[in-house]
Structures are given as C-alpha cells and as structure tokens.
TrEMBL record:
The lineage of its organism: Bacteria, Pseudomonadati, Pseudomonadota, Alphaproteobacteria, Hyphomicrobiales. InterPro entries: MeTrfase_RsmB-F_NOP2_cat, MeTrfase_RsmB-F_NOP2_dom, NusB-like_sf, NusB_RsmB_TIM44, RCMT, RsmB/NOL1/NOP2-like_CS, SAM-dependent_MTases_sf. It comes from Bosea minatitlanensis. PROSITE patterns: NOL1_NOP2_SUN, SAM_MT_RSMB_NOP. This is RsmB/NOP family class I SAM-dependent RNA methyltransferase. Belongs to the class I-like SAM-binding methyltransferase superfamily. RsmB/NOP family.
Length: 454
C-alpha cells in the first residue's frame, strides 16, 4: 500500500474477509442491515423489513429470526446501547461501518432472545470480519459481547429497575407532563411487551370471536389469543375481518356512520377505518395523498368485498361538496403505536412532532370546510403527544367558533369510561384494557375528538 492521507471519512479500511456461509449468518446480516438503515435513514422498521426480506432469499425461519432480532433491538434499544456504551472504555469508535448495528443485533440476542450465546457472538464476529469498515474492531467486539454474556444478569436487573431505560428522554418528559409519573411509567413499561393482535369483523363479531377462539372485547374488536399466520385463519380469504388495533377502531364509533350517509375519510390509507365506515353501509370517499398506500387500501377493500370512492389528493387543498361526516385520521408522530412499532421511539423527534402538528392544523381547517352544517367532524391521531391531540382541538375550536365538541359517552365505546377525558374526548393509553397476561393486555395510544358543525 502506498502512503496516503486518511480519507475525510476516516482511515482506509483493511481488506474484508469473503462472505462466510455459516448457518444463521444471513439472518444476522439482514437484521444488522435493517437496524442500520432504520436508524440512519429514519425509515419505518416494518417497511424496511418488507423491502429487504424478499430479495434476501432467506427461508421463513431465517426471515422470522431476522425480524425478531430487529424488532427486539428497537424494543430494548436503550438497554442495549447503555450496556454496550458502559463497556466500551474509550467510547464507540467513529467510522466503524456496521460495528454498531452488528453489536446491537448481537446484544439483542444475548439479552432478550432464546438464541445460544455462542451463536450470537461467533456470528457477529464473522459478520464484523466481512464488513470492510468494522473488520478492524472484531477483537474489540468479541471482548465486548463476551462481557455482555458474562454480565447479562446485572444488565437485566439494572434495566428492570429503570422503567424509562428504553424511552428517549423527550418522550419520557412529554408523558410525565401530560399524564403524571405513574401513568408515564406504565406507558414506558408496556412498550417492553409484544402487543396483542386485534381484528375487526365486518359483521357479527361474537360469531367470529368464537370461530377464531378469540376474546370479544367490550368495544366489539376481537383479540386473538395466539400469534398466528393471519392469512391462514378462517375468514381471512373470504374477507370477513381485518387486522386493526382495538383503539384504532374507536374513532369510527364516534362517527357512527348510518347507511346512505356520505362520509369523507381524508387520510384513509391503508383503509382500516374506511372499511369500518363502508361496512356500516355509508357511502365513503377514501382520500389519501399517497398513491402506493391507496393501492394497499384498494386491495384491502377488494378482499373485504367493500366499496369506496378512492381519491388521490392532498387533503389540505381538496375541494368537494360538504359531507354528512368527515374523519381526519391525521399523519402524526405515531408515538401511541410504539408497542407495535418500537422503532418509532428512536426515529421520531420533537421536531417531527411540531412539524406534524402544524400540518394537522392545516388539515383540520380543510376538514372543517368539508363538513356540512349539522355534520360531524372526527379528528384522531395515534399519538400520545398532547400537541397532536388535546391542544390541537383546543386551538381548532378557538379558530372555528361554528364547531362545538360533542363528547363521547362510555356507552359508545363499550362502557370503557376510563378512556374518555374530562372534556369528553377519547384518550386511550397503552396500559389500558388489562387482559390477564401482558400479551392479552393494552391497546394503542389514541386521541379522538368529535366536533359538530353548527
Ligand atoms: C394515520 S395514517 C391513516 C391510517 C388510516 N386512516 C387507517 O385507518 O388505515 C395517515 C395517512 O395520511 C396520509 N396523508 C399524509 N398527509 C396527507 C395529506 N396532506 N393529504 C392526504 N393524505 C395525507 C398518509 O399517506 C397516511 O396514509
């Protein structure tokens, strides 16, 4: 090698080892790549997995392992990062390629998954050797991961004693301010558990609960007892039901669409709420600005045998004859879905929340103009942040005196009065709806408010 100044991106990497064909390594390679992409590009974990798994050629078992490693890494990222950082005497090296995601994936396996320690460590070291920028850190990685194995009990005990270890500070502070210390702690702890799987039946939920061996929730959703391959369950191919978090099914209950009514669903894709409105017999216009997401909506409605007028447009500027009811399920930081999408905690920022809150205000103003006198406007977000919920509606009512709030009653949501706040809006928290075991408990954090145009 000739003498050259180090590149601006750091020292020149040594030659990487050729790719090994060790069993189990392809799943780890994919998991580390996914973790790296999600953190660097701040793209959704599910989308990244769906994009990268098919071309990887992994079989179902390896794809499942890659998914489990990546999801667990994000669910426990605070614990994993602290465990690694505290054991790196000189801090995390810069310009180290895939070092961080490879170590994160390995620590997720060692600390939280039922994987032999030697497989987690050895495959991570092979992977480090393959990556030109991290190969030089293979010995460091090896020593570090072996320490994590040895000190696992202490790491887990420390994490257990610190409910907010897997929650970024800005979110912990936001939840403390909005809900108090006890509720904020319960929110943070609920995110450590896998969420339940809920479905909405097109009709006759009691019958479908029985057929699927699920639990009929008071709100009418069905909670499945086991994790199962959805597409193989009775009723899926026939379009009898769709997957929808029980809390996400509440906003349409506030609309209570009647047969023959015209209802606009302004941020509709992928169509869970459109399907509820159509199943109630209303004539629904499903609008979204994302054409790819609307393709998913159309496919979902087709499977369910439900109809909607589908419009690709920006809801902020779309014009139409005013509707009997308008649903605005606005784009938001989605912090109410962290239990189902743990990457959200690490990819969304306060700046995102504020930018989205400004967009929500604009969309609400447009939705107001699409609601006819006497009509209902239901606004909802899957966010735990008051800026995207309670504060948004307070500001809207101040800007639009021709609207008044029509609070929800417990009877409208299966008697669950605890999910209705003092003003009559729906505010669900992830720790509501206890179900015996963590897997059968909780729902997404949602906010929904019903307004009437005078
Ligand atoms: C929370 S998701 C909607 C989920 C959907 N209502 C359901 O229940 O399946 C928000 C949606 O808003 C759409 N969106 C964001 N900005 C928009 C805009 N300016 N106009 C229309 N749709 C928009 C996004 O493409 C996304 O599909």
């Amino acid at each position: 090698m000739t003498d050259r100044a180090p590149s601006r991106r750091g020292p020149q990497p040594p030659a990487a080892a050729p790719q090994s064909d060790a069993p189990g390594l392809p799943a780890r390679r994919l998991a580390a790549t996914v973790i790296d992409e999600v953190l660097r590009a701040r793209v959704a974990l599910d989308e990244t997995l769906d994009r990268l798994i098919p071309p990887s050629g992994l079989d179902a078992a390896d794809a499942g392992l890659a998914r489990a490693i990546a999801v667990t890494a994000f669910r426990r990222l605070g614990t994993i990062r602290q465990a690694l950082d505290e054991r790196l005497d000189r801090g995390s090296p810069r310009h180290s390629g895939l070092l961080e995601p490879i170590l994160t994936a390995a620590a997720a396996q060692i600390l939280f998954l039922d994987v032999p320690d030697h497989a987690a460590v050895d495959l991570a070291i092979r992977h480090l050797h393959e990556d030109p920028r991290s190969a030089r850190y293979a010995a460091l990685g090896n020593a570090l991961l072996r320490r994590v194995v040895r000190e696992r009990d202490a790491i887990l005990a420390e994490a257990e004693a610190d409910p907010f270890r897997d929650t970024p500070d800005w979110l912990a502070e936001s939840w403390r301010a909005a809900y108090g210390e006890e509720a904020a702690t319960a929110i943070a702890l609920s995110h450590r558990e896998e969420p339940p799987l809920d479905i909405t039946a097109k009709a006759d939920p009691a019958l479908w609960a029985e057929r699927l061996g699920g639990i009929l929730l008071p709100t009418g959703s069905i909670r499945l007892r086991e994790r199962q391959a959805i597409a193989t369950l009775p009723g899926f191919a026939d379009g009898a039901w769709w997957v929808q978090d029980a809390a996400a099914a509440l906003p349409v209950r506030l609309i209570s669409p009647a047969p023959g009514e015209r209802v606009a669903d302004l941020c509709a894709a992928p169509g869970g709420k459109t399907a509820q409105i159509a199943a109630a017999g209303a004539s629904v216009t499903a609008l979204d600005r994302s054409a790819p997401r609307l393709r998913r909506l159309k496919a979902n409605l087709q499977r369910l045998g439900l109809a909607a007028e589908v419009v690709t447009a920006d809801a902020a500027s779309w014009q139409a004859e005013p509707f009997d009811a308008v649903l605005l399920d606005a784009p938001c930081s989605a912090t109410g879905t962290i239990r189902r999408h743990p990457d959200v905690a690490w990819t969304k920022t306060e700046e995102d929340r504020d930018r989205l809150a400004a967009l929500q205000a604009k969309l609400l103003d447009a939705a107001a103009g699409l609601t006819k006198p006497g009509g209902r406007l239901v606004y909802c977000t899957c966010s735990l942040e008051p800026q995207e919920g309670e504060a948004q509606i307070e500001a809207f009512l101040a800007r639009h005196p021709q609207f008044r709030r029509a609070g929800a009653s417990a009877a409208e949501i299966g008697g669950l009065g605890a999910a209705i706040d003092a003003k009559g809006d729906i505010r669900t928290l992830p720790q509501h709806l206890p179900g015996g075991t963590p897997r059968l408990s909780g729902w997404a954090g949602f906010y929904a408010s019903r307004l009437i145009r005078l």
